[in-house]
Amino acid sequence: MWRGDFVHCPSLGQLGILRDHVLEVDKKGFMVYIGPASSPEAETRLNSRASVNRIPPGTFLLPTFYDLHLHAPQFLYQGTGLHLSLMEWLNAYAFKAEERIDSSPILARRVYTRLARRLVEHGTGAVLLFGTIREDTNLILAECMKDAGIRAFVGKLSMDKNSRPTYVEMSAERALSAAASFVDKCRSLESAMDPHERLIEPVLTPRFVPTCSEELLVGLGRLSEERGLRVQSHMAEALDQVEWVRQERGLEDIDVFEQSGLLTSRTVQAHCTFLDPPSFLRLAQKGTAIAHCPLSNAYFSAAPFRLREALNSGVKVGLGTDIAGGYDIDIMSAMRHAVTVSRIREGSRHLECAASGARPNEHKSLSIDWKESLYLATAGGADALGLRAGTGQFIVGAPFDAQCIKVVDEETGRGIGSLDFLDNESAGTSAWSLSEEIVEKWWCLGDSGIASISDQYTPCSIHSRHCHLSRLSFQLLPAGEPYNSGQVSP
Fold first, then answer.
1. Any idea what the CATH number is for the domain that residue 425 is in?
2. Residue 280 shares a structural domain with residue 323
3. Cα separation of 258 and 76, whole Å?
4. In what order do the strands lie in the sheet with 267-271?
5. pLDDT digit string (tens) for 366-412?
């Protein structure tokens, strides 16, 4: 049982601040009660418990983040090689790094263990991962995520053309056989565990249209339908990639995926930068979600993603870091970049209207605000993944999946890290009241680093993230089947 302040986003653009609330979680990780601490029912529940985890003033709980697009092997060279176009970058960096990791289990485990640690440090509770083409390497990836207590959707790459000669599957038939085999092996990792303890799920992962034959794509579509499997890929990402598909197939990306049976309600497509509003309507009808990766789009796409149009069309959208096409593993960064790009788009719209003498329609703004981005990073990401209703929020019946954010030091009354609350510093936390302004300040200025955290959080093993992003241990309870993880020390 927890008592203190909680923050979540019940819907797009809505921020819920639950001040001095009581939250109770059952043994399997579902929230069974949440209400004001002053209510009679809350008092009864508090009195019935021998101990209560108290969230101190200056601290609040927030749902953990969902990263909908991350290339695990590319973490090896994160932060380099961003001067090339997409297709050149793949040949110069991505394929080589992935092949190198596939050839060395020791290196793979080192990279994936460190990746899992960084995800924990940055508040990511669930992640949709691209792996490599080798089955055993992807099982190492799954094991590393599982050991860290992260809910991971792991994709073994399927690609049978247009890659390095030594880093490609020899035929569509062999690629399909390997994909089915990986699904079985990945599921067997946790087959002996109760459903609420399972963390890992396999995902069919055609890299993107240029590296997949028609036979492979159609076969993966059939496999997804027969076994109810999730699908992830890249779609309409960059100008050179889009033109490649047009010249080779005479079609658009979205047409190829749809004809292959790979646009489903279990599909997440990354980027979708070159899709127009009619295409968004097609995705909405299919139930296909989009992973918006604003930072990598700035490097590899010739145009910004039409986020507002996608949302207005009813498409489910979450955020992705796209390591290593994006250099920052922190979803906080993805949120900030998503808002920045949208505001630039809105500014450009006003300039175009001014140039033409038209008056901009204020009801058609292209920008999003910080609260909308926070929804995309939490409940919106969970919804895009098709997880249990309520995941990413603090509501009864949903799995408990939280991170602890400390913005003010309880003893000194000073802000943590780069946060300053100079008007109230002398009062400490004695008159503390969490406000939307404080949450916004954290959203803008919160940075990352390791610091200690009170032992009171350890018994429940929740995911801890201060404004200065300290973490000691955490509990991640994924949608659909909550689970109890072990403690993880950074």
1. 2.30.40.10
2. yes
3. 33
4. 65-71, 124-130, 151-158, 200-206, 230-235, 267-271, 289-292, 317-319
5. 999 999 999 999 999 999 999 999 999 999 999 998 999 999 988 88
